[in-house]
Design brief:
The complex is a heterotrimer of chains A (419), B (152) and C (277).
Chain A lengths: L9 E10 L2 E11 L4 E5 L6 H9 L6 E6 L2 E2 L5 H10 E4 L11 H10 L6 H14 L15 H13 L5 E5 L7 H18 L2 E5 L5 H5 L2 E6 L2 E6 L1 H5 L4 H18 L4 H14 L6 E8 L2 H8 L1 H19 L5 E4 L4 E7 L3 H18 L8 H5 L4 E13 L5 H10 L2 E9 L4
Parallel strand pairs in A: 3-8, 3-9, 6-7, 7-8
Antiparallel strand pairs in A: 1-2, 1-4, 4-5, 9-10, 11-13, 11-14, 12-13, 14-15
Helix pairs in contact in A: 3-4, 3-5, 6-12, 11-12, 12-13
Chain B lengths: L1 H27 L9 E8 L10 E4 L2 E12 L4 E9 L9 E6 L6 E6 L12 E2 L1 E3 L4 H9 L8
Parallel strand pairs in B: 1-7, 2-6, 5-8
Antiparallel strand pairs in B: 1-4, 2-3, 3-4, 5-6
Chain C lengths: L1 H47 L7 H11 L4 H23 L8 H39 L2 H7 L4 H39 L4 H11 L2 H27 L9 H31 L1
Helix pairs in contact in C: 1-6, 1-8, 2-6, 3-4, 3-6, 4-6, 4-7, 4-8, 4-9, 6-8, 8-9
Classes of the chains: A alpha/beta (419), B alpha/beta (152), C mainly alpha (277).
Chain lengths: 419, 152, 277
Amino acid sequence: MDQIHPQPLIEVKELSKSFNDRVVLNRVNLKLFKGQIVAIIGKSGVGKSVLLKHIIGLLEPDAGEVLFQGMPVARMKAREKEHYLGKISYMFQNNALFNSLTVHDNVAMPLRYQRRAERKAIDAKVMQRLEQMELGDAAGKYPGELSGGMQKRVALARALITEPDIVLFDEPTTGQDPIRKNAILGMIAAYQHKFNFSAILISHDLPDIFFISDIILALYDGKIIFDGTPEAFEHFEHPFRTEFIQSLELLQQELTGLYSRRQFKVRYQMDLFRNPRESGYALLIFNLEELPRVAEQLGPTALQELIAVMSAYISKHFNEVGGFSTRYGSTQFVTILPLANADEAGRLVALLAKDLTRNGLSRLACAESAARGGHRSASITITAGIAEGKSQTPLNLVIEAARLKQQPLVRFNVKCREN
Amino acid sequence: MKKYASETWVGLFMTIGLICVGYMAIELGHVSLFGGDSYPLKARFSAISELHAGSPVTMMGIDIGQVTGVSLDQKDHQAVVQFRVRDGIEIYSDAIASIKTQGLIGEKYLDIDAGGAGDQLKPGGTITDTIPPVDLTDLIGKYAFGSVGGNK
Amino acid sequence: MEESVTQLSESSGRRGLFSEFFGAIGRAGWRGIDHFGAAGIFFIQSLAMIFRRQQLKSIVQQISFIGAQTMGIIALVALFTGMVIGLQLYYTLIKFGAVSAIGSAIGLSLVRELGPVLTAIMITARAGSAMTAEIGIQRISEQIDALITMRINPLAYLISPRVAAAVISFPLLTALFDLIGIAGGYLSSTIVTGVNTGAYFYRLKASLAWIDVMGGFTKALVFAVLVVTICCYNGFYAHMRKEGRGARGVSLATTAAVVQSCVCILISDYLITSFFL
């Protein structure tokens, strides 16, 4: 990594900060390379927001420094600072929207006071962005008239309107319902892909955050106790982990009927090693194809609903026969059916396919832009793959085998809900 | 609606406020909008008591102008009062200027008797025939010690 | 021996109390000077940024709030102030047979002192406190930080329009107060108690000079600067209060702003009257 990007975009070096003798950050290090998303996790009150505020220069460190392309932020001259702030955007935890301005004016703010762009051009750009975020109807309203979730999206729209190089997200998903949470994280990932910005993100929402971030930093007691990839975090053992993550995983399971990846592995170990003699099992993998196109046509919320409905179908069909499932990527699901062979699994998959074609995944909440573009429905393909596994074979290999055997299962239309 | 109302209110407020300020400056502060509607005159007194810039100038009890300044002429041992009188009020060289008091303890003001014989005074002209103010303390003293009319 | 020890400790204890007492006064004094200087810089920076682009709309909005919406309460207070002075003067002056002087007394007291001072105090109560609270809330909800990250100068965006609006609104409202107060005095003294109407206005006009009117407006301008600076400064730094943060900080800031504004209005009124008028 370091060889490809010799200089990090942002580097935090040995940063310490105390408020009234209370040490909030203790020699914290962080590196953000171009195109990366770094996620900072930790319990509330451990100084995650304080770290972000140091990066954008709202707070000055007691010791250590923040470097932007090698230049210390605290010692920047006015003009350099101006240039730096132009490249970076901050989405505040409490949204920090202006109550006396409409949603449209709030989002237009960063543009209006900077560039000498034409008012018309700014308005058009703002409207376009609002529609992408399903806020078209709210443009003329005041932030106080909106729900917490909508306010959050307005704040997100404002942070992204300048097309910044770096975006700092301070809990972008807090206070959202689960569907919207995923929608926002999905949106961040999508925009990150589209505009190629780099981001530092504070979030509590595991495991979804794993799908979109490249590096995870865990902040505990003012110190960084973990710095590595999401995969490495799966194996990271620390009292903090159990304390912090378990509650979130339970929530996740309740919402979708699926296990988190970690719980999935634990269950896998338990079920298959308990009776090693009859340790054969069938592994199913499902993939929702062409999802980016669906997201573009129907909007990010519809996409997340689709995933949630699909989760529900999978739990409904396999949980009663002793199966357990997890999301294995943003669009993939893995199910394990203990004590089953490929034929049995195939029959169950056929039943699922029948159910899907009969009942479909209809009535999704689509974006307003979708309706205007004439998209009231989209076609979608689900592929499935089946492999048999034994307790001795590593899980990864079985999954790989199933992935190779994937074949289209069903193809059907998803429809938008009538408003 | 909100926008429209706020701007209308501001317009209304500014109009009312400026009218009030204008009224106060012109009517109560005695500011003349046009410098040309009055002309300057001078008057020499042996004493002027408390007459000062801003004191009214009257003729037969009617306001006709304002004192603009007072100064000392040490060569002739006289006090010089500069004042302005509205255009159209004719004052002649035999005019008499006297300093009077409003009521018993009120403000001093300059009263002009226009005269009639002689030439009309030009702007900047001087009234020489003047009556200094009556000193109330003097008057009371004289009365108390019987010197008023006691010289018979 | 023992006695001397106790004496020593007692005297040192007393000295400690003294030094603590004067130390506290000294620290408070330094803090006061510190805030005074900071508020001065705060005002001058805001003043300098009034004439930037895109300020007109916000200035109009602020005039609407500070000026236009305060007209009603100013009119009401002025009317009753004028009326009560009219009555009181009548009862006092009638003892000396000088009822005709009522016009000049009302005119002078309103234009020189009561007009500017009461107007400033009413604006502080109505608009000043709201200013502090609003800016304070914007501070604690991170809106001011958001402005900085959006490269919008918070002083230019939040404070400058208010400074401009206050400097415009205070003299206008003072003029309104003076005239309505005079009308109130006219009502109570001529209609209620029967003073000669002609005498009221004649005496009023005769006794007022340019310097009185100018002095009144000068005071209004000075009060505008004081009130807007104190109220905005307290709100802007509501998060720095030692006694309490968050919502409590905002409420403390609002109280402090109103008290400081009123005290400064009265002290500066005395200073202006005694030194310049």
